[in-house]
């Protein structure tokens, strides 16, 4: 358990990520459409999101892209800080701009963790001089993606805005990369019957030079569909909120 945070943490969606966060921090309140999912978390179980918003001042979304669309506006309008795991919920540029504008107006902070990838810091620095191209090449187990293939097969090639429609649970990171890079990035998705890990390769070209970042993610112990790193990322982010010293970028 990290130090007890001064802020009251609320979590929407009591699945794998939420349970791991609750092991690391004291949580004030939780909400899940399936109430029984909240049972083993030591926190007040809310009947709806409005109750949770009123009780908490830092709200973690760990539910679904639709939950971001449904709940983010009311959370941000009340000036509450929000950590968004289902970044795919921000795929629509108009919606995302609305949320970001609301945050600026109401003094709320929005946190988008790195999740299952690395390289966000590099892209931010590189963007200062200008980015030419950013590509995400993701390889996942074919069954997890819903494909019956005999060998590694390219099942999608296109822009992130289209990729997230086709794989709403699998390419959250492509939307995050698009937001950071300020462009609808290129995405390739490969289905592979022989891999257990989620492999993300991020290829960046810009005035700074070129970078290739490759992450071979182990599945998280409790839910093989979620990369372990994606669980660890929000835990680090929350633990560092009050840090005086900032490392990287
Ligand atoms: N950014 C990243 O790198 C990254 C990585 C992994 C997962 N994710 C996303 O984070 C989210 C949580 O992941 P997880 O592994 O904990 O999932 P999970 O399936 O283990 O848990 C999700 C929980 O949310 C609940 N839920 C769904 N819709 C809801 C709603 N509208 N309101 C309240 N509760 C709702 C479900 O009942 C479930 O208990 C998913 O959307 C997933 O795609 C993001």
TrEMBL record:
Family to which the UniProt record says this protein belongs: Belongs to the L-aspartate dehydrogenase family.
One of the GO BP terms on file: NAD+ biosynthetic process
Note from the entry: The iminoaspartate product is unstable in aqueous solution and can decompose to oxaloacetate and ammonia.
Record lineage: Archaea, Methanobacteriati, Thermoplasmatota, DHVE2 group, Candidatus Aciduliprofundum
Protein name: L-aspartate dehydrogenase
Residue positions binding NAD(+): 116, 172
Record EC number: 1.4.1.21
Domain Aspartate dehydrogenase: 150-233
A molecular-function term among this protein's GO annotations: NADP binding
Alphabetized InterPro entries for the sequence: Asp/hSer_DH_NAD-bd, Asp_DH, Asp_DH_arc, Asp_DH_prok, L-Asp_DH, NAD(P)-bd_dom_sf
Pfam family, one: Asp_DH_C
Name of the gene encoding the protein in the UniProt record: nadX
Domain Aspartate/homoserine dehydrogenase NAD-binding: residue ranges: 13-113
Superkingdom, natural source: Archaea
Catalyzed reaction equations: L-aspartate + NAD(+) + H2O = oxaloacetate + NH4(+) + NADH + H(+); L-aspartate + NADP(+) + H2O = oxaloacetate + NH4(+) + NADPH + H(+)
Keywords for this protein: NAD, NADP, Oxidoreductase, Pyridine nucleotide biosynthesis
Catalytic machinery residues: 200
Entry function: Specifically catalyzes the NAD or NADP-dependent dehydrogenation of L-aspartate to iminoaspartate.
Pathway the protein takes part in: Cofactor biosynthesis; NAD(+) biosynthesis; iminoaspartate from L-aspartate (dehydrogenase route): step 1/1
């Amino acid at each position: 358990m990290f130090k007890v945070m001064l802020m009251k943490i609320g979590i929407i969606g009591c699945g794998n990520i939420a349970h791991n966060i609750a092991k690391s921090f004291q949580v004030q309140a939780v909400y899940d459409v399936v109430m029984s999912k909240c049972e083993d978390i030591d926190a007040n179980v809310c009947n709806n999101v409005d109750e949770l918003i009123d009780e908490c001042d830092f709200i973690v979304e760990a539910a679904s892209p639709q939950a971001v669309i449904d709940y983010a506006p009311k959370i941000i309008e009340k000036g509450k800080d929000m950590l968004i795991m289902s970044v795919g919920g921000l795929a629509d540029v108009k919606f995302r701009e609305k949320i970001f504008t609301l945050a600026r107006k109401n003094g709320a902070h929005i946190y988008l963790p790195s999740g299952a990838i690395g390289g966000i810091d590099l892209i931010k620095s590189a963007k200062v001089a200008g980015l030419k191209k950013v590509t995400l090449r993701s390889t996942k187990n074919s069954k997890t993606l819903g494909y019956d293939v005999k060998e590694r097969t390219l099942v999608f090639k296109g822009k992130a805005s289209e990729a997230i429609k086709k794989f709403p649970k699998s390419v959250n990171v492509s939307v995050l990369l698009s937001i950071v890079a300020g462009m609808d990035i290129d995405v390739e998705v490969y289905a592979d019957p022989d891999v257990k890990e989620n492999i993300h390769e991020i290829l960046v070209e810009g005035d700074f030079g070129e970078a290739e970042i490759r992450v071979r993610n182990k599945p998280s112990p409790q839910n093989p569909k979620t990369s372990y790193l994606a669980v660890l990322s929000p835990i680090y982010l929350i633990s560092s909120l009050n840090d005086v010293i900032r490392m990287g970028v």
